[in-house]
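Collaborator request log, item 7. Partner lab (contact: R.S.) asked for a structural prediction of Translational regulator CsrA to inform their binding assays.
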Amino acid sequence: MLVLSRKVGETIWIGEDIEIVISEVKGEQVKIGIRAPRSIDVIRGELRQDVSVSNTEAVIKNLALLKAPKNK
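Returned to partner:
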């Protein structure tokens, strides 16, 4: 993991087309702006984990339905 120190207004570039801008630092909270092509998904870490858990639960339920005996 790369760890960088930045001040308000400074930026970080990822590749050629993703820019991270430090917009505000207040106490322990840092606000950032992200400029990226619309084709790049940008999602908060906790939401990504929630989606992953939901997807896993859905797969398990679907597998249980497929394995359940069918009533004719």
